[in-house]
Design brief:
Structural class: alpha/beta
CATH topology of the largest domain: Dihydrodipicolinate Reductase, domain 2
Distance between the termini: 40 Å
Strand content: 25-35%
Family: Belongs to the Gfo/Idh/MocA family.
Largest sheet: 9 strands, mixed
Number of domains: 2
Pfam families: GFO_IDH_MocA, GFO_IDH_MocA_C3
Keywords: Oxidoreductase
Organism: Paenibacillus hexagrammi
Strand order of the largest sheet: 14-13-12-11-7-10-9-8-15
Shape: globular
Number of helices: 9
CATH architecture of the largest domain: 2-Layer Sandwich
InterPro entries: Gfo/Idh/MocA-like_OxRdtase_N (IPR000683), Gfo/Idh/MocA_domain (IPR050984), GFO_IDH_MocA-like_dom (IPR055170), NAD(P)-bd_dom_sf (IPR036291)
Length: about 325
């Protein structure tokens, strides 16, 4: 493994890889993308040429066998995450797997165990967590400025119901708004509160037009001390991407909570006794920061920012949310 640059291989030509993760790695301090694979060789060649990637493969197996690849990014459909994470680990590659980690907590446990056995890293691609603005949010909360936390509300919705070929609308492939965007509010609340929830109750719109995946879900996630996350997520609703942390003496509003901040949209706001102030944050590419954190952990220079077990814990909440919506019941988490 090179210690000057972590050499990345990309399994698949998904939009998230082309639009965000590959450019992020290429703009990081530590990473270089050396290869990309698709089951369509022509597609991987065209993608490689457009993004200045040296090597293109027509199978995922060829990429995993490449000795010039240290780490794998997996942006494949959700139902393929488990298989290719385990195969990448067995090939001795570090793994960055697109969220959600898999279809169930049990699958994610298998993935983490395979990576531990192989002595490689496993990370779930919640890129927003690597931006320093969330460290600043937690710092403000810890200072007591907004008082005791009484609740968190988060929303992540977008409107794309007419894309008939979209894998998000295929149930057996892990489609649905909870998997695609609802996982973000759950992850954020767990991170901000620093604890695991006790129970969940959700209500969903399962669309017969979209293979009965959840096109919209609203939920209550209960934490200790009467604190809760209320959230909604959707793929057939107007765009929203927000987090609000409500305290006894103030609140924090994050207008663009998960999408990579731009120079205009990265700031957040603190509202309290002294009025409303803007907390300006630097424009930093979240995908590049994510790549750097993984590289430093792979080289043993820094610990992982988020342990693999975090992915299992997040999936346990997602499992419960899906079960609650399907059964129309409150689910207690062990």
């Amino acid at each position: 493994m090179s210690m000057s640059k972590l050499r990345w291989g990309i399994l698949g030509c998904a939009n998230i890889a082309i639009r965000a993760c590959i450019p992020g790695i290429q703009n990081s301090e530590t990473g270089v993308v050396t290869a990309i694979a698709s089951r369509n060789l022509q597609k991987s060649k065209e993608t490689a040429e457009s993004l200045n990637i040296p090597t293109a493969y027509g199978t995922y197996e060829e990429l995993l066998a490449d000795p010039n690849v240290d780490a794998i990014y997996i942006p494949l459909p959700n139902h393929l995450h488990k298989e290719w994470t385990i195969r990448a680990a067995e090939a001795g590659k570090h793994v960055l797997c697109e969220k959600p980690a898999s279809l169930t907590a049990a699958e994610t446990e298998e993935m983490v165990a395979a990576c531990e056995k192989a002595g490689v890293l496993f990370a779930e691609a919640f890129m927003y967590r690597h931006h320093p603005r969330y460290a600043r949010v937690k710092e403000i909360i810890a200072s007591g400025e907004i008082g005791e936390i009484r609740g968190i509300h988060a929303a992540f919705t977008f409107n794309n119901p007419d894309d008939a070929a979209n894998v998000r609308f295929v149930k057996e492939m892990g489609g649905g708004s909870l998997y695609d965007v609802g996982c973000y509010p759950i992850s954020a609340a767990r991170m901000i509160l620093g604890e695991e929830p006790e129970a969940v109750t959700t209500h969903a719109f399962f669309s017969p037009q979209h293979d009965n995946v959840d096109m919209m879900m609203s939920g209550l996630v209960e934490f200790s001390g009467g604190v809760a996350l209320t959230f909604d997520c959707g793929m057939w609703a107007d765009f929203r991407n927000t987090v609000e942390v409500l305290g006894t003496r103030g609140r924090i509003e994050i207008p663009s909570a998960f999408i990579t901040p731009t120079e205009e949209s990265g700031s957040f706001y603190v509202i309290g006794a002294d009025g409303r102030r803007e907390e300006q944050v630097p424009y930093l590419n979240q995908y590049a920061l994510q790549a750097d954190d993984i590289a430093y952990a792979a080289w043993g220079k820094k610990p992982m920012r988020f342990e693999p077990a975090d992915a299992v814990k997040n999936m346990k909440v997602i499992d419960a949310c899906l079960k609650s919506a399907e059964e129309r019941s409150r689910i207690v988490l062990s």
